[in-house]
């Protein structure tokens, strides 16, 4: 049996509950020879899962989030001899239309409506809007479809008449920013933000302590938190950062890193 506590100690404290859960998923697949379907996972969680599987040949996993380059995706973990197919992900694409000339609908309006209805963030994925077409789409777990259609009837001033649409009608995600190669003094949260947005460490410290920074969708108040591959950092009014790759150290001992950066 895998010692979950021993495995979890190699990750950040905030990640250890997920590491323990993911380890249990792998044990279930290994012991019971069946598929395990997760909720929607963020990029860092999927990366952790790939680390835990490592070079094992008896287990595999695939992810799917309906949208091309989806940020949040459900994952199917399976014994290597079982073929994973799209229906295994049990997802539905829900869509609403709104009169674009008269009403404005924002991402935060949709997110707020879902959370206010008591829907856990883990059971729905990406939210996309096309303001030119006047439509919004949400990837959801199939078992949540009826509840959403019955409970979320109004989003701001927009009447929510949900309909399920085929995956080939999924909206195309807008530009996800640019990849930038940077030399950073360390992978501390404050150092990364300062380098990516050209801010002073003092400015960043104030932003973190004011609750303006989230790592992997959870507020982070620790300036010295270490950033890992595929972590997603959100900074209010500045944008988002994701660590894509590392390439060793420079002659001045700075860390060579590639970040995906979206400037607000």
From TrEMBL:
RNA-binding S4 domain: residues covered: 187-247
SUPFAM superfamilies noted in UniProt: Alpha-L RNA-binding motif
Pfam families: S4, YlmH_1st, YlmH_RBD
Keywords, sorted A to Z: RNA-binding
Membrane spanning stretches: none
GO MF annotation, one: RNA binding
InterPro entries: Nucleotide-bd_a/b_plait_sf (IPR012677), RqcP2_N (IPR048443), RqcP2_RBD (IPR040591), S4_RNA-bd (IPR002942), S4_RNA-bd_sf (IPR036986)
Domain of life: Bacteria
UniProt xrefs under PANTHER family: MITOCHONDRIAL TRANSCRIPTION RESCUE FACTOR 1 (PTHR13633:SF3)
Name the UniProt record assigns to this protein: RNA-binding protein YlmH, contains S4-like domain
Organism: Fructobacillus durionis
């Amino acid at each position: 049996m895998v010692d979950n506590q021993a495995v979890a100690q190699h990750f950040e404290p905030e990640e250890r509950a997920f590491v323990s859960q993911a380890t249990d998923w792998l044990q279930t697949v290994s012991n019971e020879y069946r598929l395990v379907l997760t909720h929607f996972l963020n990029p860092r969680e999927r990366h952790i899962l790939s680390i835990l599987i490592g070079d094992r040949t008896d287990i595999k996993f695939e992810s799917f989030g309906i949208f091309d380059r989806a940020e949040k995706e459900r994952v199917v973990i399976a014994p290597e001899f079982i073929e994973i197919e799209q229906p295994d992900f049990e997802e539905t694409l829900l869509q609403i239309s709104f009169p674009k000339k008269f009403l404005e609908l924002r991402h935060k309006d949709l997110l707020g409506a879902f959370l206010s209805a008591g829907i856990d963030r883990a059971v729905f994925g990406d939210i996309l809007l096309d303001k030119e077409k006047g439509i919004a789409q949400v990837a959801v777990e199939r078992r949540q479809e009826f509840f959403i259609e019955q409970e979320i009837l109004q989003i701001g001033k927009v009447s929510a008449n949900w309909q399920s649409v085929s995956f080939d009608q999924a909206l195309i995600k807008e530009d996800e920013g640019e990849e930038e190669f940077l030399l950073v003094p360390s992978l501390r949260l404050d150092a990364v933000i300062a380098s990516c947005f050209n801010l002073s460490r003092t400015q960043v410290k104030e932003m973190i302590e004011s609750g303006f920074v989230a790592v992997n969708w959870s507020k982070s108040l620790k300036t010295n938190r270490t950033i890992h591959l595929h972590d997603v950092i959100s900074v209010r009014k500045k944008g988002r950062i994701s660590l894509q790759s590392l390439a060793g150290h420079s002659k001045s001992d700075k860390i060579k890193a590639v970040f995906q950066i979206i400037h607000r």
